[in-house]
Amino acid sequence: MEHTAHGSPPDRGGGPGRDETPQERADRRWNEVLQEVRVAQTGAQILFGFLVSVAFTPVFARLGSFDTDLYVVTVVLGACATGTLIAPVSFHHFLAGHNLKPALVRTAFRMIAFGLALLALTIGCALLLLLRTATGNPTLAWILSAAVMGWFATSWLLLPHLVLRRAERSRAAR
To answer: Which of 8, 23, 88, 141 is deepest in the core (most CB within 10 A)?
Structure first.
């Protein structure tokens, strides 16, 4: 096996400390995608199933027009989130055997990111609808829902961005 001047194997595209071909990297990243999507898909599917059942409850008939419209938007967002998070499986099914795994992985990452955004919006709308109905206080419902969405933005976007920036600064300092 070939080694670099530091005695380690050359990086063949797998990142620091990895000795993998581009195809091995694509296989590893695909397995990582599957693990990520399993968690998100399950949550989206359970939430969507719950949302569908709400229309068949007695409380639904008493909702005002705003809340009914909010419910429809929430269900549509939930359906889109579920479909988007399942899409990488369909992509894989149709593209398997065509030597397109690196492209599949890149597309799957984008689909998951978009699916997570749709899922966050679904949760935010569902929470708003629930809190409007449960508390009877629309202002409190908006404030609490906005706070939860702020937490999602912080934990799903801001914190990973900060970790990445810190790691990049650390690498640049070496």
So the answer is: 88
Among 77, 82, 165, residue whose Cα is nearest residue 124:
77
Q: Per-residue confidence at 17, pLDDT binned at 50, 70, 90?
A: low
Q: Rounded mean pLDDT of the chain?
A: 87
Which amino acid is present at 98?
H
**Comparing C-alpha atoms, which of 82, 60, 83 is closest to residue 72?**
60
Q: Residue 167: which residues within 8 A CB-CB, separation 6 or more?
A: none
Q: Cα(142)–Cα(135) distance, rounded to whole angstroms?
A: 11
- Asked if 82 contacts 44 with a C-beta cutoff of 8 angstroms, the reply is yes
Q: Which amino acid is at 1?
A: M
Instruction: Supply 135's token pair.
Output: 């508390």
pTM listed for this prediction: 0.80
Looking at residue 93, its pLDDT comes to 82
